[in-house]
Design a protein that fits this description.
By secondary structure, the protein is of the alpha+beta class. It has helices at residues 23-32, 38-46, 70-77, 94-111, 129-138; strands spanning 85-88, 115-119, 147-152, 162-167. A four-stranded mixed β-sheet has the order 1-2-4-3, sandwiched between helices.
Amino acid sequence: MVAATVHPLPGRGTPKLPSPSGEGQAASAAGVAKSRSSSEAALWTALPHPTTASRRPPSPLGEGNKGIEPNRRQRIAREREDIGARLDLHGMDQQRARAVLEGFLATAFHEGWRAVLVITGKGVQGDGVLKRRAPEWLAAPHLAHIVAGISDAARHHGGEGALYVALKRKARG
């Protein structure tokens, strides 16, 4: 009943219905919602479904890196999962930054922290060396037993100039 009362805004036309090749999709949508007319079912299939549309742009962290599970990343960003420690790599050269980062991760893992924040900075023009290299270092095979995943930080934690690093649980025993 509500759909029958909806009309396009002035100056806007109705969306184009799918081509005849999309009739199978319209039929399946009509089967899901039998109360819809065939034109409503065709319109339903023509519009992007919210679960299929990507909500965030792809992360620039690279192909070889595992991202943090979305729900866990959200818990970290909202501070429902503690950020155990923070490391600021500003002002360090690559060699020093990598050594400090690896030592920091080993200590955090040993302490039992599950998530840490690594601040790399954005660099002068947004293309900082540490920002680019830190995800590569975190994906190194010798850190695979420590790092569960990485993700860009939320804006209030440094945004593109920082990374959440999810750590694996320590093996008991």
